[in-house]
Amino acid sequence: MRLKAVVLAAGKGTRLKTEGRDLPKVMREACARPLLRYVLEAISFIDKADTVIVAGYKKEDVMAAFGDYPFAVQAEQLGTGHAVMSARQLLEGFDGSVLICYGDMPLLTRETYEALVRTHAAEGNDCTILSSSSDEELPYGRIVRDGSGSFVKIVEDRDCTAAERAIRELNTGLYVFEAAKLLPALSKLQNNNAQGEYYLTDVPAILRGEGARIGICMRALGDEIIGVNTLEQLKQVEDILRQRGAC
């Protein structure tokens, strides 16, 4: 299986700002190490040369710390779909699978990433979504299925109806796509949503409409699902890492 990764790491992390600390979100530290370091170690089964980091806010800081990886630049933060579009040049002509993940989710384990990749390959999917449920009140998109349990679409939390918000199956934001299907679908994204952004979450539904095979790898992730958006979550993540013996 030919595999590349795209790690989204362009965010500013406005809610993580503290006095005297103006860092890109993925460069905030837990246990004295950048959040992005944990993600890159968890996906180290993919060669560095095939792991593209999408940087944006204060990109020089990220590039300086992780200079042995290829980079794409998202000059404006116009959504997750736009972030992946920024890496298009480094994916064109690639006929394998692409893992897409986030640089601010340091608790996800190598085992989880590998399970997602294995599911994608075993099922022969064009797109495989990692989903889970959580007791935490997380602002994650919901996985909408039809009566037979098949994937229909992902609805972002901020765009959910009351009924959709009651769905407990959450989109973690991790996917594996076949590159040959992903790149054309990115060109069809529209930004007619509450944020005026290009959502990567719309790509699976676009592919489904074209007859592509969409799979879901649903796992009990526990605290792995927690990303870092606030100072409280940063402390929570650090506490969990300490419990795991990472500190």
From TrEMBL:
Pfam families: NTP_transf_3. Residues 5-189 form the MobA-like NTP transferase domain. It catalyses: alpha-D-glucosamine 1-phosphate + acetyl-CoA = N-acetyl-alpha-D-glucosamine 1-phosphate + CoA + H(+); N-acetyl-alpha-D-glucosamine 1-phosphate + UTP + H(+) = UDP-N-acetyl-alpha-D-glucosamine + diphosphate. GO terms for molecular function: glucosamine-1-phosphate N-acetyltransferase activity; UDP-N-acetylglucosamine diphosphorylase activity. It comes from the Bacteria. Keywords: Acyltransferase, Nucleotidyltransferase, Transferase. InterPro entries: GlmU-like, MobA-like_NTP_Trfase, Nucleotide-diphossugar_trans. In the C-terminal section; belongs to the transferase hexapeptide repeat family. In the N-terminal section; belongs to the N-acetylglucosamine-1-phosphate uridyltransferase family. PANTHER family: BIFUNCTIONAL PROTEIN GLMU, NUCLEOTIDYL TRANSFERASE. This is UDP-N-acetylglucosamine pyrophosphorylase.
